[in-house]
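--- STAGE predict ---
source: upstream dedup step, 1 unique chain passed
mode: sequence only
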Amino acid sequence: MHIPILKEEILKEVNENGNFIDATFGEGGHSKAVLEKIKPQKVLAIERDEALYHRGLKLPGIILHHGSYVELKEIVEKVNFQNISGILFDLGFCTFHIEESQRGFTFLKNEPLDMRYGNQEQTAEKIVNKWPLKELEKILKDYGEERYAKRIALQIIKQRKEKRIENTFQLVEVVKKAVPYKKSKIHFATRTFQALRIAVNDELNNLQKGLDQAYDLLEKDGKIMVISFHSLEDRIVKKFFKNIKSKLILPSEEEIKNNKKARSAKLRVGIKK
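--- STAGE serialize ---
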């Protein structure tokens, strides 16, 4: 079951007198909660994943649009959505992606190396089997902050010469051969999977584009709220909020106890003046 992270903290920041955009609808937890608070104002929700979009159509009262927040301005104009006082970006992936999508988002199940949120051509399988050494090393270093980036990239090249890497368990074995064993809280393949997911979905560039558009669309005193889960995303948000009034909100100990996924979450709220 998907539990929306930092829900109560977000609701405290929501202005009841304006419309709201949930730029990352997912399984609808935040959208439903916000709509309950701001009725009769409206919630426009955007979902890139086709499967989640079709599920979300069953929810009453929410204007749900199939697309990406990269096209935020275009979508807002299309549905003539005005008086926007809040926009939320939840940058985590959904329980659906791990438990049901079968697209290789987790190294704990043997699934095809897909990792797409949308219908773009790029997949994780294409990256690991086609990209040259330097580019593989770069994404592992830049997007995964992986200290063994070169060793893993070399092992990927070696493996794919023998046999195409098509599923998650194959990739886990490749990473296992490349990195020295040591006890750690983080699974040795975590950073590699993160790097590939970010590269496949162009997450960091998309985030920057989404934030730029969100700020322009907000009314005066409107709020951008961003939940991030790793330092790469948070760095972009922090830099974006540098010259505007903002604050950082962390999940409570109680929430972390009840939902381990909240452990690494950070909510930054920026206010447009």
